[in-house]
# Entry
Amino acid sequence: MELFELTVHALQQKLASRQVSSEEIVKSIFARINKVDDKVKAFITLTEEDALNKAREVDNAGQYKGIAGIPLGLKDLFCTPGVNTTCGSKMLADFVPTYASTAFRRLEEQQGILAGKLNMDEFAMGSSTENSSFFATCNPWDLTRVPGGSSGGSAAAVSADEVPFSLGTDTGGSIRQPASFCGVVGMKPTYGRVSRWGVIAFASSLDQVGVISKDVYDNALIMKIIAGHDHLDSTSAALDVPDYTACLDGDIKGLRVAYPQEYFGSGVDAAIKDAIKKALLKYEELGAIVEEVSLPHSEYALPAYYLVAPAEASANLARFDGVRYGYRDNEAENMEAMFSQTRCQGFGDEVKRRIMLGTYALSSGYYDAYYLKALKVRRLIADDFTRVFKDFDIIVAPTTPTTAFKLGKQSGDPLTLYMNDILTVPVNMAGLPGMSIPCGFDQGMPIGMQIIGKAFDEATIYKAAYAYEQSTNFHTMKPALGVE
Amino acid sequence: MALTIKEVEHVALLARLSLSEDEKVKLSQQLGAILNYADTLNTIPTDNVEPLTHILSVHNVFRADEVQPSMPREEMLANAPLVEAGYYKVPKIM
Amino acid sequence: MSKDYEVVIGLEVHAELKTQTKIFCSCSTAFGAEPNTQTCPICAGFPGVLPVLNKKVVDLAITTGLALNCEIPNICKFDRKNYFYPDSPKAYQISQFDMPICINGYLDIDVEGRRKRIGINRVHMEEDAGKLVHQGDITTTPFSLVDLNRCGIPLLEIVSEPDMRSAQEARAYMEKLRAMLLFAGVSDCKMQEGSLRCDANVSVRPIGQVEFGTRTEIKNLNSFRALERAIEYEAARHIEAIKGGETLVQETRTWDEEKQLTRSMRSKEEAHDYRYFPEPDLLPLKISQEWVNSIRAAFPEMPEQAQKRLVEEYGLPEYDAQILTLTPDSLAFFDQCLKQYPDAKTISNWMMGEFNRLLNQNNMEIGESKVTAAGLVQMLKSIDDGTISGKMAKMVLEEMFATGNCPEVIIREKGLVQISDEGTLLTLIDDIIKTNPKVVEDYKSGKEKAFGFFAGQIMKATQGQANPTLVNKLLKDRLNHIQ
Ligand SMILES: [Mg+2]
Ligand SMILES: [Zn+2]
# Structure
């Protein structure tokens, strides 16, 4: 195997035993990127020179602790000092932060090496990465298909072996859905588990940082590094972070697994339902207790989400006004014109649509009917999960209703596109941890299985995911990409 | 049901977006469709339900009142489209 | 003001809190720094940043609530108030909407000897905005400059009920509120520096009418005087409009200090919908009874307690007590004097009289003056022991005020020592009597003026240094003995 194909833990071993240097790994990664990224188009910015310099530094120091010397990619909404952070938007095309997001800082403290910044739907709004202001990213399994979104670049880059792992964010499914589409492992931890500091906000009460990796072990390994309390984020939980890799023993005898009937409805492709049902049988085989349950408010999660998230976004994105950073329309003759023209030219259609929707939902006369109503429904959705988790350890469901769709196919009607999030959004509304792992293929396209856990119980998800992964070989399959 | 163009214009003014006529027409329909979909929420009774504003049941997160150095002004101004004499420069207000 | 109409006034006061750092970041709050040198990505609203609440702000808000007799609900939260303006970097202000930290308080004010209770609807925490610098006027400047130093400075917004019925009441409320905030130690309340700002809601209704008239909000009231004048102006404008059958518009107006009138700010009113919603980046606050009690236990003496003490323990008139307790500095000065000098009324007279005149003349607060309590006491003692006269003392105080020197030095340097030597004075008196026989005759024939002439001549001859009491006594003595 080539170095670029290896997992983080495989690279750790090679570095620790001095079989390879960090410089060799970074060079291998960039050779791979040069070879395939013309096709995949996962990266917005590459930081090759810095990466090589850092790799040499690590090699010179000769200490390979943690993820020292291992390259990584970041969704382009993690602030990186001195490196453009665009959020996939023309608005921030030239924005260079002076501060680092906490998640990235923690990786850097272990001397993880940034390879570049990854494409995404503008301001994380979308499910296909077609809403990037710059270009669309392609699915490595079929370049005519989308990689999912909004962390499409992060999932595609890992799937195409351009980086061993990446960070993404998940507001309504933006890690799990692209992970599912690209056949990789994506974890959205509990709201509050990873600091949101330095991550450009979409919807503050829903956004969570998470990891996209080639396998479950890597995911657990990276999550342990980035998770934990941060005094810069008031909503980050002051709880200890367990050693997630320590519980990956494959033993899930007696694990109580629920599958909600609402997640196997008519909107979900038969092949996907079959794949998940097979996975459930596998769980039984492994000694788990599997039962059907009901999450009756599931169908209301999506409409509620499309009020709450845009409402918060309308305020979060109001700061992009052309005054202190970002795009400005220099032709505007006064302040008001500058604001309105800057924002109209700097934001793409989907972002404008959601700002309009959120502004409307909060505006006088509509607040109670839309925003407040959605918050009440949010409570009911969360209560559904609480009820089920009294008797079960995890919930298993499909991650997406379909496999990756064709580029350009869903760009016409926003509502159709929003339906992609129908199985992931409830988890964000309830603030719970959720993961997607590969569980099969349909006509050559990966299928993802979603595992949902109790609040702050990522450990059980990792344990269950690992047991399944190790008893199957889906995670070892790689897209051909027409190279070699 | 589509929003009226007037409603779209009012919301666009609140959101500071100078939409083109085409955009207004499109948005009046798209927003209307999404809001229609949102109306399905009205089928669930929520009279005695507390709105969920914060998913974490944590309170009183504080910082001590201790000064840390501010960020150097050059860094604060480095990304600005226009600066003058240590200020952000903006077009006339009126 | 027409007798048929009643003015209804409510005040919204913004007080800057006395903290070292801003409300949601660790930037300094020091006044007067170079533009944009006290900012960071948080207070300047950069992408990806998050607020963390300064605990001191909550402590001071609770303190204020207690000082203003408020209830402190056990839970409160922050909200976003959305509006675009270049001095508001996030385009929303983090404020409190439907669950403020303090509610339902009151403040008692004294106007023309009457006590009146003014309701306080709420006190809430919020962040300040930045500052815009224009070339000349906002309407004519070709561009504006943005300074974000003030962004994120913690504010309390204190909203009164519409309980005031005259400009004087509004002023009294404002003065009392300022005193309370100063005594509670929560704000510096410097109106000129903007650390205490006031907006007035004014409406007018015919006497006897229950419903309120159309209300306007006046901004930019930077002094007690501006507050009074603006309300008077605005009330007169409303009455005139009502009498003339005009319809008043509910709007925001600004006080033009130069022209002494209010002007419409209607341009700012378009699209006025703040779209408040709960701030997701900040968690709610639980204010326990223990927390409130611990603040209550550490409470400093407040103006009303101090007034009572001054009246009951030191026998000062109510009026003196009220004036001396307008600021904690003034009360502290008085208390310090009293420790070293037994006569409360004399201290009060000097503080409220000459000293106060000098402060007003120089637009200064007592804490900013060079005159110390010890200095004033020394001066009073110099009067008592006859070293200087009361008149000289005024000069001495002026000099103390200007230079900060102690009275002893001033008296010595200026040669202000009073002549109290009987022999010296008698020689002078005899001399003057001798050279003015005609005036002596006038005196003898009962013309009181003549006495004044002699006294004046002696003061003139001694360049004002003669002990006036002694001169009077000796002069009367001598004149009465002349046959
Ligand atoms: Mg306010
Ligand atoms: Zn700051």
